[in-house]
Amino acid sequence: MEYTQVHLEGATFDVYSLNTVVVGSGAAGFNAADRLYFSGQRDIAIVTEGLMKGTSRNTGSDKQTYYKLTVAGSSPDSIYEMAETLFQGGCVHGDIALVEAALSVRCFFRLVDIGVPFPHNSYGEYVGYKTDHDPRQRATSAGPLTSKYMTERLQEEIEKKGIKVFDGYQIIGILTDRSKTRTVGLLALNLNNLENPDKRYVLFNCTNVIYATGGPAGMYRSSVYPESQTGSTGIALEVGVRGRNLTESQFGIASIKFRWNLSGTYQQVLPRYVSTNQDGGDEKEFLTEYFSDTGKMLTAIFLKGYQWPFDPRKINNFGSSLIDILVHYERVVKGRRVFLDFTKNPLDKDFRFDLLEKEAYEYLEKSNALFGTPIERLSHMNQPAIELYKNHGIDLSKEYLEIAVCNQHNNGGLAGNIWWESNIKHFFPVGEVNGSHGIYRPGGSALNSGQVGSTRAAEYISACYREDPMNIEEFLSTVKDQIGKKVELGESFLSNLSEGSNIYDIRRDIGERMDRVGGIIRSLESARKAAKEVKDTLNRIKDTTRISSVRELPYAYQNYDLLLTQYVYLSAIANYIENRGRSRGSYLVYDREGELPLPVLPEAFRFSLDDGRLSEIIQEVVYRDGECYFEWIPVRPIPKGDDWFENVWNNFRRGEIYRKE
Question: Quick one: pLDDT at residue 296?
């Protein structure tokens, strides 16, 4: 890596020139850098807003899952079978599914070898369990903080190798060549030197970018993502990186004071669902108003543990996802607050275990948990689940836990090929920012995908893209105008210094808008209207943003990115519905000819299930000159590759495997 300082348009920039920059310091980003180093590419660096930020390090669930090929017991499994499971989720390219299956064991055992404590039995078998959308028992877990352990162990590997980390640098621009067909560098804010105009902006002149920035977490107000995670999808869309499956996100019930998925044992111990007015008064156990059969209500609560993501297929006949609908109705439509109460049983004195349906009753019976209150059952079955909240200032034995239906994961994202390279050459989106997932995915496949994608990107770069970056003069000549526009945006924000900052008002509006029209309840009219509203806001952002100091400049850039992201996502939702897309994945689409989940619910909840017609074509979008252009692409089937060893060996030795996309 080479360092120099340049003067451009009256401003001074630090410039770092190197082969590859990895953006992001989560599990996918760290793994990308580690695998680049392992493959012999040492001219690399990591750029991150903060080493302690991000989803990998700061989130989890009751049993955070890693999904991989079966490596224990007598149950048969194969790479092709796992690929089929991923492929059958709908809107998934078969060749990418095959890669994620093929590398799952390699990536899993790499994590084992560096110290992630995945459990095995006394014979060395890494036994598994069945997760959602999983026909086998491929899932494993190191506990509720699996991704945190992954990130910590991978960071240790980075530190051992002495890989340079630029900590406190926010990427605000992706720089391309004049034809806008390949990336050539990055523009960053130096968060450590914002007050110094000559140190405020930093340039990275690089051959390759591995983009591991996570999902667009800041776009929703009701979110399970940690507050430190915002996402940077918009600036990639801005330079022409294709979006894929942007309609497909995952939602579920989570706590909002401390952001955490309320899956697994939190539901299986049968907490009480209550709502209040905004002041905490008028408490009522609202589920009882809608479930005519008490046993079905209790069983639906239990099943939220297994069936945590909202799924429109699990609404009818008082299914578990009806609970998500009712929580949304109470909180968003009625404007009430919603809580889980672990201190008392549902129905209080009328509660009986024998009201449960067989599956739920037998689970609790086998767990020796047919006794007491929810908090007592939770203590018996999963004491760490109680300690987790206590460590964040919430005592479940004494207080209610406020909840919402929250955005949890983006199954869509930026498009990449089987080496995770985007349509913009030398730009590799990996981890959650990559849209490799389809409509439905097995629980835990995201952690595997992040490791596989970052490994593939590193391998391809090491084999095919080892050249040095441009010389400084050529680089500056190529990106001068792009830098100018981005810096001018920042300077316009700084020209609006005011004691009455509206940075957080804009952020709140972004989140509330997405909750309202891009969450679990969607309609064509609301998506179109909201997209127009966002575009108008985006066009006026330079004039309307007011910041109180230069310390708020990073948030102003984030708002710009989130608004751009939101415009493209809402446009994608509208385009999906225009193409007769119906309810699927983790959202309902309003259909005036559909059915209501319950007769007492408002018209906005009327829906029809997707018939699978659009599951074999994938929506992709390009943002260009302020407009979105959509293309629907047939899914590629799972390849039936040549597995004759001599042929594979020859193709591998000649490097021909890298020419196959």
Answer: 97
Nearest-5° Cα angle at 60, 214 to 92: 50
HSE, side-chain direction, 13 A CA sphere, residue 398: 5
Q: What is the pTM of this model?
A: 0.96
Give the C-alpha distances (Å, rounded to integers) separating 512 from 118, 220, 311, 562, 650.
38, 7, 22, 13, 56
Nearest residue to 435 (alpha-carbon basis) of 245, 634, 234 = 245
In the three-class reduction of DSSP (H, G, I as helix; E, B as strand; rest coil), residue 590 is classed as strand
**In terms of C-beta density within 10 A (0-12 exposed, 13-18 middle, 19 or more buried), how is residue 308 classed?**
buried
pLDDT at 59: 85
Tell me the CB-side half-sphere exposure of residue 207, using CA atoms within 13 A. Answer: 17
Could you give the CA distance from residue 635 to residue 423 in angstroms, rounded to a whole number? 17
Q: Which segments of the chain have a pLDDT < 50?
A: none
User: What CA–CA distances, in Å, run from 351 to 28, 298, 345?
Assistant: 46, 9, 7
Q: Which two tokens stand for residue 241?
A: 């990186």
**CA 254 → CA 93, 327, 526, distances in Å?**
31, 11, 25
CB neighbours of residue 418 within 10 Å: 19
Domains assigned to the chain: 252-408 (no CATH), 485-634 (1.20.58.100)
Give per-residue pLDDT as tens, 594-646: 999 999 999 999 999 999 999 999 999 999 999 999 999 999 999 987 788 99
How would you classify the pairing of strands 272-276 and 337-341? Answer: antiparallel
Residue identified by tokens 């003067």 is 7
Q: Give the gyration radius of the chain's Cα atoms.
A: 25
- Closest residue by Cα to residue 485 from 194, 253, 236, 172: 172
Structure tokens at 257: 């004071």
Strand, helix or coil at 28?
Answer: helix
pLDDT at 62: 79
